[in-house]
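Q: What structure does this chain adopt?
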Amino acid sequence: MATPRPKMRIGLFGGTFNPIHIGHLIAAQSALEHFELAKVVFVPCAVPPHKDGGGLVDARHRLAMVQAAVEDDFRFEVSDVEVQRGGRSYTVDTASGFREGYPDAELCFIIGADTLSELRLWREIGRLLEMVRFVCLARPGTDVAGLQADPGRIGLPEPWPTTLLADVVEGRLVDISSSDIRYRIAEGMSIRYLVPAAVEMYIAEHSLYRM
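A:
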């Protein structure tokens, strides 16, 4: 009897990307390597459901910046599905669309360890957990051991806490944030080396994040 072929694993990386920076790209690469993903698809949201929209530039700009950031890396792709859908972006809707588009693939949704305790608040989380495998990158120093010792803190019924914690790996420590980049731009400071050169150029050309 022939051995079944393993499913292709596709990483989905959602976020506001306001703007995308080097930390996002390093996280995507880490997830791709740790979980043996065939590719990572970046999915910029239209309107984030759980964040204050203050300081959020138009979705078309954020989408264009992500496209500029990854255009030279064949391992990374960009989906405009949430931007085209408009309104608040819910992962369950996006995952459902990808499930239809890749019926034979294993969909791996990339998150940070700080998101584990928030998943219970996500729309239709039970349905979402059935559609995708959450793969988690923990910043060095994150108390993953504490969560493993008390998985009830995740706030989901078993087997989900155990399943989620089994897919936590340590990521690289990259202390870069989109909010700091926006602050630096507003203050007239350089963002070189914090974002890809193409993103820095796009921000300058369109005068984004200036006071």
